[in-house]
Amino acid sequence: MRFSAPIFRLKRQARLLARRQGIPLNQALDRVASEEGFRSWSHLASTCSEQRASDRILGKLSAGDLLLLGARPGHGKTLLGLELAASARDLGRTGIFFTLNDNERDVLDRLATIGAERKRGSAFVIVDTSDEICADYVIARLGKTEDDALAVIDHLQLLDQRRSTPDLATQIRALKSYAEASGAIVVTISQIDRGFELTGKRVPDVSDVRLPNPLDLTVFDKTCFLHAGEVLLETAA
C-alpha cells in the first residue's frame, strides 16, 4: 500500500500535530495513521513491508566503523540516528545518543515516534545532552559501558563550536582511532549545505557536507545520505 508521504514525514506530521493541539504523541500518530486508512499507527507500521533503513545500515556496519550520516533538515537524519541507537541491542551493543542540538524532552519525543521510549534506569537508549560533548567526552563516556557501544553524535558541525576543544579534524581522528581500538561503532550526523537543493542530484554526497573548517572526509569508513525517503549507503573512498 502506498502512503501519501514517506514514513519519516508521517512521523514528523504526527509530532507537529501533537505539539500544535497539545495531545499525546501516540494519539497524534494514530490520527495520522487513520488519515492513511489504517486502524492505528501500529497497524500502519506492521503493514509496511519495506525493511527499515536502520536495519539495512546495521547489517553493513562492522566493529570500528566511523559512519557519516547526512541530510538536509526535515529528511529524517535524526530519527534514523535514533533508530540506529535504539537497535544497537540487536547487535549486543549499548546504544548512546549524544546531542548538542536537542534537549532531552525533544529526544524522548522523537524516540516515541519510533516506538523506542527510553525506560528509566535502563540502557535501551542512553541519551546524553551535556554541553561538554566533544570527542574526548564521548570517548570517556563510551569507555564506561560494559558492552561494546554504538554511539550517535548529533551533530558533526556542533563539535567545532567551542574554542576550548580541539579542531574538528583532530576530534574526528580521535573518534576514529578510539573506534578502531575498542571495536565501538560511531555515527556522526551531519548537516548538508543548502546549495545541494540546486544541484539536481537525488541524494547528497560528500561534496555537499557543510564544513565550517577543513576536514578530510575519507577518514569515515562509510557514508549514508538521505533525501525525500531515499537512502544511499556507501563505503567511503
Structural class by helix and strand composition? alpha/beta
Whole-number tally of structural domains:
2
Q: Considering the protein shown, what is the CATH homologous superfamily of the largest domain?
A: P-loop containing nucleotide triphosphate hydrolases
How confident overall, as mean pLDDT? 89
The 3D shape can be described as globular
Per DSSP E runs of 2 or more residues, the count of β-strands stands at 7
Task: Please state how the strands of the largest beta sheet are arranged side by side.
Answer: 3-2-4-5-1-6-7
Question: How would you sum up the major sheet?
Answer: 7 strands, mixed
Number of helices: 8
As residue ranges, the low-confidence spans are 119-123
State the order of secondary-structure elements, H for helix, E for strand: HHHHEHEHEHEHEEE
The name of the CATH architecture of the largest domain is 3-Layer(aba) Sandwich
